[in-house]
Amino acid sequence: MAWKVGAAVSAALTMGIAVSVAQAPAPQRAAWRAEYRAPESIPFPESNPYSRVKAELGRRLFFDPILSGDRTRSCASCHQPDLAWTDGLRRALGRTGGDMEFHTPSLLNLAWQEGRFGWDGKFRDLEAVAFGPISAPGNMNLSAEEAVRRLSADPGYAAAFAGAFPDPAVTRERIEAALATFERLIVSAPAPFDAWVAGDEGAISEAAKRGFDLFNGRANCAACHSGWSFSDGSFHDVGVGRGEDVGRGRFVPTSQALQYAFKTPGLRELRGRAHFMHDGSLDSLAAVIDLYDRGGIDRPSRSSEIRPLNLSAAEKADILAFLDTLNAGAASSVAVADIPAAAPKP
Ligand code: HEC
Ligand code: HEC
């Protein structure tokens, strides 16, 4: 029975319930739904395999202001666990006040992200990020040499490094490895959407299901926000940046498609993540949907996947209802996963 939804639509009409014409046929929805199955374990690179002691060391470093010059900032000053690992600000706060260049991105589900890191891809891999903020004079303002010296001089850290690595030396590479191992454990908790993907039909509303159809269908969001973490890890101009704010284009000036291109963010736990976009220029999800509805700034670099959508108010509401199913909710909030099932025991 290929047109099951048709029957549901006429039943709903008989009952006087409004239905969106954008609803996808059941087989199509089922195929899309299968694309979002949650992974069973957290992937770790061969070059920096998981161990519990290394992750614990990384956790400690992440929350410790010892990594800032004047000992006032830690990674968690900006990547706050209860704000989906961002900071609630439009753009990050510089050390001496004033806005930094970018909005603080969430750190959820980075273990699944392949390719480069940072809004403009300035970081080669997750390990390479750490000393960006640590040694930036406008951010944590601590040189790698001083970081190594401080941690070596601290008996607690000296012991933790000795436990996590083959010998007790504290090095820049080991600080990076430990922080990245901890960061790969920052995984979003199962949300209503995941229960629906796993087969619980009642886990999300009919509005959210229509929003899911739009997300994958006419609104084309899944062209870039793909898979379980809702990011393709790639760079696109969706029509936001202006002027000198060229994103990936700064590093690849000859590529037209990479001018004003920024990395596709994942879409989990958006409820705690306002403001939005690399420059924090949009204050609400409704404003984000309006931007896509208009199609952003029309220019040669704009992605061919972006075009004006002419969504109705009901369709916009459906997409918002769908995005809301990606929140695990206040009770479970955002969890740092425990020891991943597939990880080798230390
Ligand atoms: C002042 C606030 C602030 C502090 C402190 C900070 N970050 Fe960030 N973080 C940001 C901003 C802003 C960006 C975006 C930078 C860019 O794209 O160039 C970012 C980007 C990142 C990314 C890339 C995420 C992605 O999706 O590509 C990672 C990983 C990260 N930070 C980890 C850390 C770690 C680890 C620390 C501590 C050593 C730290 N941050 C300290 C604000 C901060
Ligand atoms: C061509 C690829 C592409 C398509 C299609 C696309 N997005 Fe995006 N999305 C991105 C990129 C890239 C960004 C970051 C843009 C920036 O900061 O300038 C983004 C940002 C967002 C954000 C803000 C997240 C944050 O952390 O700031 C949301 C929410 C979002 N998109 C939802 C959607 C929805 C809903 C649709 C469909 C209506 C959609 N996107 C279509 C690539 C895409």
Work out the radius of gyration. 22 Å
Oligomeric state of this protein: single chain
Helix vs. strand class: mainly alpha
Through-space gap between termini:
52 Å
The CATH topology of the largest domain is what?
Answer: Cytochrome Bc1 Complex, Chain D, domain 2
Give the overall form: globular
**What about the largest sheet?**
2 strands, antiparallel
Q: Give a count of the beta strands, DSSP E runs of length 2 or more.
A: 2
Q: Total domains, how many?
A: 2
Mean pLDDT: 89
What does this protein structure show overall?
31% of the residues lie in helices and 1% in strands. It is mostly helical and 346 residues long. It has two domains: 17-40 and 189-324, Cytochrome c-like domain (Cytochrome Bc1 Complex, Chain D, domain 2), CATH 1.10.760; 52-183, Cytochrome c-like domain (Cytochrome Bc1 Complex, Chain D, domain 2), CATH 1.10.760.10. One heme C is lined by residues 67, 73, 75, 77-79, 92-93, 100, 102, 104-105, 107, 110, 117-120, 122, 126, 129-130, 133-134, 139-140, 179, 183, 263.
List keywords for this structure.
disordered C terminus; 2 domains; disordered N terminus; 1% strand; Cytochrome Bc1 Complex, Chain D, domain 2; two-stranded antiparallel sheet; mainly alpha; 2 strands
Task: Give a short synopsis of this structure.
Helix 3 (52-62) runs antiparallel to helix 6 (155-164), helix 3 (52-62) packs across helix 7 and helix 9 (206-216) packs across helix 11 (313-324). This protein has 346 residues and is an all-alpha fold. It is 31% helix and 1% strand.
